[in-house]
């Protein structure tokens, strides 16, 4: 089972912070970065609780009506991993060797470090740890300390250190200060502004041992962190046993076996492992863009969940899918309030949020990405079709109606049809455009689904008629002369971007050019029209023409891009191109291709790599509750095996080359 | 000469802060709000020095490459007007009567106040004051105190009080905290961040007098404030004499005599008076949007100067015009740096600035209003044509070349012609559009002017050819079916705004609707295409069609709108409609029609009211250095008389209604 094991040899970048992210452990509630036991200056240790954020007012240089009011920032919590060691009074160490071994099959991380003092005394630290999936309040460590070449007094301290706020100096709009001043009362930590409580139970370890040469001292430490002040007694060995069992079940239903490319095999398992670890489980938390592994994007929930992550969960872990969708149902009141504030009907879900309120401070690439509302409806529909969970849909169908009402009030009927203006599509390198193809397509789908539900539940029939009419008359821009789908009303009129004059170091463009310069050019950050082609039927010829036009204009500066282009390449039988995209997607974080895995995993891309294999290589399609597959395996791949759970029934799919 | 006198009876709103603005005195360098001698809780006293600002970093909720870095905020300086009075120990007063009389003919303000103590002792304070145009460092007051109904000890203190920073609680994006912590050393006040020096000379007055009933005590106070530590000895009487002479000269060249509407007559004089008072004179300062009368828009300089104020100065006060244009020439290095930062050629002038650097914190309605660059070129050309000041143009022609270079790099040649994308036109209720008609028209004009200069000075001829070609091929959108000029590529496709469902209190829209909602509708804040029609030739039929289409869609939420619609109404012989617009423009601040005269005068509108009379009623046109006029007087106006200075020669124009 070596393919379930991750070691440092698998990493393209072994900087301290990269290791912290990639070997981070999480259980959907609690996440802990795999920082060094004795931190270096490069270390960025910390732990996170899903949905535990601090808020502060957004300051605008120039304010306007209806802007998002507060930042919400997932708090970087305790350093649970630092070990304070002194050997005969010496407390400075240099790292000689490190070895990490993540057993993805069991969810257990094993680590071994050798350190030396200035005077040459060597010590080995062996760690075994887990973020428990059986008891999600617990992070557990087994620690062994071995005196390698000396006998003497070894002082060992093991405490949870509260991370104090520190500034971020780097220019990167995707990063934000994530620490908070916590108000401490007994074992309760409360955020000052958001007034959220966190209860902890830490038993510090602090002893001085007398170790003989080669002698090993072993102890276990359990750290409890929970939103509720309610802790159960557990032991390390029990937790480890439970963890192993839970992961066995996980892989039994969710593994993908791919023969012919070991790197891709490991990459996809690594991705599925992190997806399982960072997904919220309680209906009140969702899946942060960086999971629970880092502070990028402030721990916010985006459309990534619906369009990149939920397909995997819906098809293999429907209980998790249900919990993620329940989160949206639970924040419906905030979405209704937001729509009313902006003087629209129905519900307008936040582009980025933790607590349900909009927290995007730049609306052209935030609130204006209204498509998230159609994305949510799409995910509900997919869940509906795949799981057949009638109770859930019956209970939450109001979400869909309210979204449809929003779109009816935001769009308008013109001589051309139902139009939707002043939106930003998935491609954030154009903003505030009219009739974004992806958005209009998704809204059309939303209207149809809402109308179907209305008929199914025999209600809102007058509205259903309007929704169907709007869907039937939905306007889509098409360039007859070039036979191209228009990304939006003006995209094809834009000036070409001078790719040949853009040096490599100027990517991602957003860090090197003003938005106005980017927006006025034909240049894409990520799949947009092509994403619509991944989801909906269209002639292969049309898809191919659009693919050939848009792909060369796409920088893939967003990690959400390559996997989608890969699926669509498969769809038009360009299996080897698809393979190239998959390799990039499947190993994006392992190879640190985006250059910022240190800020946390690229969760959406991880979900995207699942889409690449299942929607792409295996050509999965769902029609009337029946699945269809087709073989798009590239030459190098001998076979692909995976499971899907359709309406409660597990189906194994096995696709072989020839 | 009663028409040169302003009293409280002329004001539509006599709140303390409104009076402070409208009776404020200024001399282009120093401005003092006409606050009560004994401030009430509503008072907002203060003085300003043109261009004296404090800067602090702009905080962005979400930052991006190339955003403006620092706020620049004109500092609200000393309260120079408060008189501390105590009668037999009583220091609390209630205001019984106030009478203000501004002699615009001489630039002298006379005020009389009656106050009473709780025990009924009444005192009269008479003030005479001026912001000296002869010595722009000086604000001078003559103060008389009369014991009306008592004999006793009157303690009088007269000091300059430094205004301490205070927050602004009101939601209004057009207002910003304008006080600063000043670092004081001797008579030098230095701003902490911008490191600007201000030197002061204040001789405090502090005496206790024994006054008999009806006895009057009179003294004078001179307050010196200057960017240079260099003060000359002056007396109040000399300053008053000089002031009277200077204003006599001013009115001799700049007055407009209008017979038939006394209110309009007073309104236009009031406007010209303030224009003369707030215009920068030294080539390093410009004309703040609110002049030197209030803190609205942070004391920033906008395109208002070029398009609304400079015509008046160019035609009647060319020395002031020259100084305002010199300011642009002096900030050319900042504009070149800004263009380079955004990776464009030439010079990109800041949308709003004091020190030449961009300080707009919301680029869609800031930097994106690139038209300011064409506006600057337009004003240089007008100055060139009207004054014939060849030396000035020879010295500063680089400004025009650099602007033309910017436009060549920002726009692009397509199959349709030379296009300019991703700009915001004058109408701020649409943003980031393609081929804004006004912008393209102004850029075309810039290209032609730059090419002409190149020929005149026999240089840059290769570039001149490109500029001419781009101008000749400039793209203008036109709706053939409706025979309408397109405000931009998408404006005519937008959803109509539901004016009938918009309650009166929801204007201005920007304070009540999210930008996305506003931008996606056919609704204008101000004249846009119609402004282009004011400036350039076009068939009357076309102008009339465009006017009839755009005017009903225009909220006139901007004070820059009505005057322009007025001029264009005159141009298409709708003299009575023009008259309605002029009345609104000429008395906008006197009647407080925008509701925020308390924040300062609406300078651009004041300039606009001059345009209304001269470009509109008198139909002024300039062709090859020759002026032409035509009679567009509305019925109620009997005659109009004014002067224009063409190439150094004063011409009196007299237009009579039959």
UniProtKB/TrEMBL annotation, chains A, B:
Active site: 428
Annotated residues for binding of substrate: 303-304, 525-526
Molecular-function GO term, any one: glycosyltransferase activity
Annotated Glycoside hydrolase family 65 N-terminal domain residues: 17-159
A GO BP entry: carbohydrate metabolic process
Keyword Transferase among record annotations: yes
Pfam families to which the protein is assigned, alphabetical: Glyco_hydro_65m, Glyco_hydro_65N
Record keyword Cell inner membrane present: no
Record-annotated Glycoside hydrolase family 65 central catalytic domain positions: 269-610
Alphabetized UniProt keyword annotations: Glycosyltransferase, Transferase
Family in the record: Belongs to the glycosyl hydrolase 65 family.
PANTHER family associated with the record: GLYCOSYL HYDROLASE-RELATED (PTHR11051), PROTEIN-GLUCOSYLGALACTOSYLHYDROXYLYSINE GLUCOSIDASE (PTHR11051:SF8)
Name this protein carries in UniProt: Maltose phosphorylase
Lineage of origin: Bacteria, Bacillati, Bacillota, Bacilli, Lactobacillales
